[in-house]
Design a protein that fits this description.
Elements (H helix, E strand, L loop, with lengths): L2 E6 L3 H13 L3 E7 L2 H15 L8 E5 L8 H11 L5 E5 L4 H10 L5 E5 H4 L2 H12 L4 E2 L1 H15 L8 H11 L4 H8 L5 H13 L2 H4 L3 H14 L4 E2 L5 E4 L5 E2 L3
Parallel strand pairs: 1-2, 1-3, 3-4, 4-5, 5-6
Antiparallel strand pairs: 7-8, 8-9
Helix pairs in contact: 2-3, 4-7, 8-10, 8-12, 9-10
């Protein structure tokens, strides 16, 4: 089967080389190529709207993780899959940045994907099997990538403040001290306490609290506990606290 491909790569020379090499295999037709996640998302939306049929979309996306534009490749895939669930994507990257591994872990991408090192897998004859596997629903992650994802996850769980911007860290510490938004705003020199409310929301999102509760008082209390314990805590639907063990599994603390 000839695969229709959306190619997303910010280096124009590499993008052209990939396009030429992949099409030379006879297994791939590059339907569209671009340098940013924003352009990739716009292409998918335009293509599906013109034909009013998701089958007009490319069979699979080949996407660098570092891109032009505001979104990186992981964020772009999440945005695209929000509109077109499980559209297959193969990621590649030479960058070794904690941010990318963190975004990948948070993305919750479970199937129809591959994530590999650029230096290890970027020959066309090696890419094509990955594309076919992703289209078939099979997923693959380079062992080096998987090791780094787990390393970053362990780092994050044991350093929750490291997930926050400096001003967010300061607010989180004051929340743990029991200060109100008004008191925090006064200490930080803000006239409008609503600024602190927005910062609180960013803290809750970074620590997964926005997903487990819509009650601000509960989220605030849980944020204070995370600061005091110095590690990420999750709460299940019954309100039971969970921490991650050495194997990366969530369990009730002893």
């Amino acid at each position: 089967m000839l695969l229709s491909l959306l190619l997303v790569e910010d280096n124009p020379k590499l993008r052209q080389a990939l396009k030429t090499g992949l099409e030379a295999t006879g297994a791939v037709r590059v339907a569209f190529d671009c340098d940013s996640g924003e352009a990739a998302l716009a292409y998918c939306i335009k293509t599906s709207e013109v034909s009013e049929d998701f089958r007009s979309l490319p069979d699979v996306i080949l996407m660098d993780v570092q891109l032009a534009g505001e979104m990186n490749g992981i964020q772009a895939a999440v945005a695209i899959r929000r509109e077109y669930p499980r559209l297959p994507v193969v990621f590649y990257s030479i960058q070794d940045d904690d941010t990318y591994y963190r975004d990948f872990r948070r993305a919750g991408i479970l199937s129809h994907y591959a994530y590999v090192r650029k230096s290890n897998y970027l020959l066309p004859q090696m890419i094509v099997p990955l594309l076919r596997d992703a289209v078939s629903g099979r997923s693959f992650i380079d062992p080096e990538i998987e090791a780094r994802v787990q390393e970053v996850r362990q780092k994050d769980e044991n350093d929750p403040l490291g997930l926050l911007e400096p001003n967010e860290q300061a607010v989180a510490r004051m929340i743990a001290q029991g200060l109100t938004n008004e008191q925090i705003a006064a200490r930080m020199g803000f006239r409008d306490k609503r600024t602190i409310s927005r910062v609180n929301g960013q803290i809750y999102a970074a620590w997964g609290l926005a997903d487990s509760t819509t009650d601000e008082k509960i989220a605030r209390t849980r944020a204070a506990l995370i600061v005091q314990r110095g590690r990420i805590i999750r709460w299940d639907e019954d309100g039971t606290p969970l921490v991650m063990d050495e194997r990366g599994e969530w369990m009730t603390p002893s």
